[in-house]
Amino acid sequence: MNKNAVISNNANQDNFFGELQRTRFQYFDSFPSTDGVPAGWIIDLKGQLHQWNGAEWINLAQNYVHPDYPLTNNPFQTDQTSGLLLLSQILTNSSGHVIKVAGRNLTNADIVSIFLNDAIQSGTFTWSSNKIRTYIENLLGQSLTGALIYQPGGYVPSSVEGSMAAPSPITSASIKTGMVWVITANGWVGSNPVSVGDHLIANTDGASNVPANYQIIEKGIPDIVDATDSVKGLIQIATDAEALAGINTSKAMTPRSTKAVLDSKIKSKTWQIGDGSSVTFAITHGWNTWEVDYICYRNTDNRRINVSFLPVSANDVQIDVLAPLAPNEYRITITARLD
Fold this sequence. Notes:
Blueprint: E1 27-28, E2 42-45, E3 48-52, E4 57-59, E5 84-92, E6 98-106, H1 108-115, H2 129-144, E7 149-150, E8 179-182, E9 187-189, E10 192-194, E11 199-202, E12 214-217, E13 236-237, H3 240-245, E14 251-252, H4 255-265, E15 266-273, E16 280-284, E17 292-298, E18 303-304, E19 308-311, E20 316-320, E21 330-337
Parallel strand pairs: 1-2, 7-8, 13-14
Antiparallel strand pairs: 2-3, 3-4, 5-6, 8-11, 9-10, 11-12, 15-21, 16-20, 17-18, 17-21, 19-20
């Protein structure tokens, strides 16, 4: 096998409970040095697994048969058709082995007494469905007081200065405080000029067509400022050159300038490797950087494969595998982020 095909992990490895398939423990003909080795190291010593416990080697090939202590009582060995069976007792012998298990059924009264309390708001207790419904209904009723209520259809103002057209609904009794209309044409509300997009808000019940009974909110802002990272405002589009420079703080990037930056800063290319005999492959990317990474797949089934990946210069990397690859067996994509 190729001795250069080694992947070094300078960190713990978490396989998320995945199986280790087609793997072997490191083989030794005699016990290796344990200087500086923490407890837990497992090796294959002449065909038998041994573990270093921090003081000595333990032969894991020795079998242990656990003694049998049958339970004298186990209510959990049969299915429960009603209620909720809780563990109420565990009895052990002098060796610490369980010899008895007891249980009791949890009743509705038990649950209510532990969790339900309609009298208080607490991080410990909960409320009944009736209590929750009453609370939500009261909360919704309070939140509607003073709310802005959108009126569909919009509002067409008067075309004559000094007059006001009544909004819909037009009866005084139907208009309530907080009703809001979007103005759909230029015109007048009394002596106030309004334009499309402004808002008319009733500030009293039964406002009818009295201008003083309404608040006008204009969509137009006379003094629009330049946008910043904390203030809304006007913004100018950056050129590709400004986007690449990356120093302008007052212009925005478009998809085109964003693509120009990504194309300039992020490099990526895919190579096919494998010739039927080689276990080492030299690849030249030519990006003048040591900061490169890779991802490799087997072409036949698109399975991701880990290989030994070593940058040997700012423009070249070396790939090592354990056994020769068939022609174009793998495809490897190398990426880099340039400064």
